[in-house]
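Obj.: predict assembly geometry.
Materials: sequence records (below).
Method: joint structure prediction, all chains together.
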Amino acid sequence: MGLFYFSIYLFLIGGFLPIFLYKRFSLMKISGIVFISAGCLLSMIGAFLNLINSLNSSIAFKYFHNFSIAFKMDALSAFFTITICLICLLASIYSFHYLNHPEKSFRTAVSYFFYSFLVLSMIGVVNSDNILTFAFAWEMMSLTSLFLVIYEYEEKDTSIAGYLYFIFTHSGAMFIFASFGIIYSLTGNFDFKNLSNLSNIAQITIFVLAFIGFGAKAGVFPLHVWLPYAHPAAPSHVSAVMSGVMIKTGIYGILRIYFLLDTNIYVFGYIALIAGILSGVLGVVYALGQHDLKRLLAYHSVENIGIILIGLGIGMIGLANKNFSMAVLGFSGGLLHVLNHSIFKSLLFMGAGVVLQKSGSRSIEQLGGLMKPMKITGTTFLIGAVAISGLPPLNGFVSEFLIYFGSFKGLFIDNSAFVLSILAILSLSIIGGLALACFTKVVGIVFLGEPRSEKALKVMDENGITLKIPMIILSLFCFLIGIMPKYFAMLSFKVLSSFGIFLGANSSHYTKCLDLMNNISIMAFIFIIILLIIVEIRNLIYKGKQIGKKETWGCGFTKPTPKIQYTASSYAFSILEFYKPVAEIKQSSIKITDLFPKQVHFHSQVLDIAERLIISAIVKPILMILDKQRWIQHGDIHLYIGYILLAIIVLLFFV
Amino acid sequence: MINSLILLIISIIFSPFFSGLILKVKAFFAGKKGPPVLIHYYTLIKLFKKGSVYSKSTTYIFKLAPIVTLGVSITSLMFFPFSGYKSVFAFEGDIIMILYLFGTARFFTILAALDTASPFEGMGAAREAYFAIFAEASLFMILIFFSLLNKSLSFSDILLGENAMSLWKASGVSILFIIISLFMILLVENTRVPIDDPATHLELTMIHEVMILDHSGPDLALIELGASFKLLFYSSFITCLVFPFKFQSQLLNVLCFFIILSLVYMFIGIVESVIARYKMDKIPKFILSSFALAVFATIFIWR
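Observations (raw structure tokens):
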């Protein structure tokens, strides 16, 4: 744990130093990045050692007598700490060439300050040992990330996004604190103590409240509304951190609370699974309808949180039924998907950031043909895209495979588990198909084909070595986990076996899982060897052959322009039309009427059902009620003093 | 192991021949003489001899896609138990991985199509992505059925193990449903007639063929090979479900397997001859009815 606490000082230095050095732009960035990444590296090593040696290190000190600050790193915390530090390390390196506006020097320095505090508070959230520390770290995380989101605060969209994020994250926190309040009132202390002897209703209330609160942070449908606004508005390395790891603290919270409660209660698993299915399927449907690259990726976070929750839900159902093989498969699949998603999602956001920086456009429809000037970005983005679609031999497949396997085990338990398992399997397969459609769209339209606009045409290079290195490292991780999943699955087993509930699971359950992982490796190797053989044979065949270069065959049409290419909207249209009941498409266009038509335009937008529901069912009624109370705020200072007096007198009756 | 490897190689070598059978059957129904049965071998040899022309718009992905599709098809065949021999490789869960590998192949085919910047190929790619979503759901419903009946997720166990699937056992009725459902998926996944017509003259109406318009020479040959292996995979799957018997003589087993296999191919030819192509908006309904069949079959055997 010493290593880990030393890193806190590094984060603090990395946070404060840039503010003093802001006049020297490059030095400022280097000082911030060096200390933040050193801190990340150290705490990652510390957490890793903790995890493989199954240590539980803790520290606690009192503050103002009754406000106790306590940290404890158990296996679950260590697992999340490793994930957080890995992504934050790479994202901070990436930021060196990404934040390249010397005229915004002070603002950049401040953003490093908040960045280091965001990392620190995320580590704090996953390591805190009592409710107060958790709440403190949680609030710090929400606020620092808010300030990172509004980096370009003078733009209207960004300030709206920041406002929305602020509201959502704090209404979510309200639910979390409500559930903590119930815990405190029933147990009388602030520790994360076992709650399984409380009444079922109390436990379910605690879980539901915590699930809503943490779900709002994680982006569970229908509380995901802030994600597609905040992620595009934030600078790309911040989106990578937020989407890659910050929303996972929500998952951490759900898991932490769940393992305090009585795992024999069925409802927990049902809630998690159904929420997972909803966010998984709907997230990817909405993603398919987006034209903004980063907004699309944000919706994919909703989808992947859904997959993680499906895994956890399967695990919870397994535990409630004492079916340990199902529980081990579900939980380890979910946990591994936390790691996997953080890897490929931050990789994709970094790729999107490079595209945005070089072309100045986030709109997919305006891009095209970027693979030629941006070989490394394009290739790593492609790897991330294959991984996020859950295709072998990359890492996304491994965790989905585990979840599939767990769901297939659930078919044999009882009626409700049977139906839910079938739903889980089918929704996973539908998510897989839709994600494939969505990411072929992104890669195909953005990186392949011909440039669709001036902006895409002017992209010449992908300069900036620190932009490329993190993406290369992350894509190597995608391969590594995909081909040798055994070692990474073992990390998640370590986490599971640290919980007392899993004492019933004997080593055969784990070895069975490890066998599965070995099989994936074997198959991946077979596939790659066959690919290499085919490549060799192909080279032999092509030796000495004539290779021509011509235009794409235009079916007799001799004057092709880039404008006749398929666009992202037309590619996704037929799929979206099928999902019309949940994803309404709003279109506006000017019809061609005269002989000499004026300029025409066509605009289409996919409406998010959750956004509309929240506006019509929650926001509007609240506004209506509050509007009627406006007379209380009249601006007269005498009466305000009267209010205070009245409040004190009323309180005197109660205290 | 050696036996199954030899059988695998024989099946691979013969697969273009079987595809030729389809053409013969179709010609018979049309009252024509039709191309020779070995037509696909001639085409492959011709294509391998040629050079290639690449579009200026394309990148390396365009060349990668044929390699991946062929690689996936060969890998999938390695996990398939031909005619009662254990497959070359097998493990618990291989069936899920193979379905996902087909997804990988589809991913790269679609990307190669979008790589050419051709509007036709974009259209084909969009359709391929759209229909695959339903086909995949349908396949996983079939998997649920197998898993319920057999408690296993490996091809070798499902087709050879203790509870091997068979049309001729107690749950035969529901397996009949599954066979029909699987046959419908075969038509979808292998671009067969009610869904897609490789022989049509209008690019606007194609799905898979339009995606490979710009591939030429050996690259095209790799794609054709991959497609014929994929068809072999699906039809052998159906053959094994229809004909699970074991004779004493291995030779007889193999012989029967290949005869039934060619009957399945001929049946594809008959279907292609008697059914007209569906309109594009009818295709999702077609795939979803195969999904419904699989659901019904699962309900039959459940409890």
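Conclusions so far: Residues 570 and 576 of chain A are 10 Å apart (CA to CA).
To do: check interface contacts against the pulldown list.
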